[in-house]
Design goal:
The chain has helices at 2-29, 86-96, 120-125, 131-142, 168-185, 195-202, 208-211, 233-238, 243-260; strands at 103-105, 111-115, 152-155, 189-193, 215-220, 223-230. The chain has 263 residues and is α/β, with parallel strands linked by helices. It is elongated.
Length: 263
Amino acid sequence: MVAREGLRTADGQRTRAAVVQAAFDWWMLAGVDTPAAAEPRSWLAAPAEPPLPEPVSTAAPRPAPAARPLARAPGGAEDLSRFATLDALHAHVRGLFPGAPLFDGAAASGILVMGEAPSAADLETGRPFTGPAGRLLDRMLAAIGLDRGSCGITLLVPRRGVPGPPRPEEIEEDLPLTKAHLRLLAPRAILLLGATAAQTLAGETAPISALRGRRLRVSCGERTVPALATFNPAYLLRRPEDKALAWADLLAFRTLLEETAPA
């Protein structure tokens, strides 16, 4: 009796499987090869009433509080030359722009990594190069024996309050801050990430595809230091096929570090 029940159960399962397979075969022959929705629906049922639109508020939007500008000299440029230490500079800027991702890493290392503008993750953490692009940068640096404890990391436009490429006027506004960073950090070599940082600091106009891997010069106060440009990690996340070029740039930067190492 148990054996017969088992046979009937097995036969029933095979029958149901055959019916389901036949339905799938019919749909395939009819050209249905992609599900239209996660849940089935009746195409013969009356359509549901569309939801009422949300009421539109007639009140004027509350304007966002404007950030206070940094102290400016009479000529219009920001007067940051009075700051003799990095801590004093950062304390002043963060008093006006709390949470700005100004700097991360080792200030006295002599090695500086310069990016372009904050990402959404940077604005949340208050540190440059966090989130996916930051994790990729950490791996890139580790590949040539560096980490955030052996180099400094900053941005060309750290006070930009929204993620995305900086506008020319934003670059101009933050340039005195960047120059103060370069003067106080006094790096011996700089890795420039992306076209905006490379073009602005090295005075170049060529695209990053032409600048990458080249020896450039960046003014740091009263002296110039060697620099090398490569792709921004955020770009490499979108175009991983260019990582091989970035790897060649990193090897060239490692050679630059060996040549500029203190005796």
